[in-house]
């Protein structure tokens, strides 16, 4: 007997992800690796590698699972600023926890192809899209802002976290929302095609 438990399919995937989460929480990003996960899970490294090519992919799967399990959707307050502050406070709470270091590590080590562009044509965080949709529906915003404007607050918060290891909190969140995010949301419109210059973002002015 080799001490390994025979598991298959979803049960094996769950066991690996649970072991990976425990490794991240106990050892941090610096000590996280496929070797430790396979030992903790009681399965062969090859089994883990068949599912995730490296520690970045495995950690991303753990983070996606943890985010989904811990996600609490805030009830709309009826005020755009209040909802954006609540969103950033929730983000800061998650990043300040035991898995924040893994978020930072995976972003540094992930290939460019796996990094979503904050200046692209889609909204990165679904909660932000919901907040903006609510604001448009009640007339607080005259029209849907550009994706870049919608991503701005999250992008700045993540940039701060990547550079300092600490997410913005308290007054820093208020400044980010009041001086950058809300002005960007109220001054930009959806992307439209300019017959001369190509794609452009239409100003609300």
From TrEMBL:
Keyword Transcription regulation in record: yes
InterPro entries referenced in this protein's UniProt entry, alphabetically: Homeodomain-like_sf, HTH-type_TetR-like_transc_reg, HTH_TetR, Tet_transcr_reg_TetR-rel_C_sf, TetR_C
Molecular function via GO: DNA-binding transcription factor activity; transcription cis-regulatory region binding
A Pfam family: TetR_N
PROSITE patterns: HTH_TETR_2
Keyword field: DNA-binding, Transcription, Transcription regulation
Keyword Glycoprotein among record annotations: no
Domain HTH tetR-type: start-end pairs: 10-70
Record-annotated DNA-binding residue ranges: 33-52
Entry superkingdom: Bacteria
Protein name in the entry: TetR family transcriptional regulator
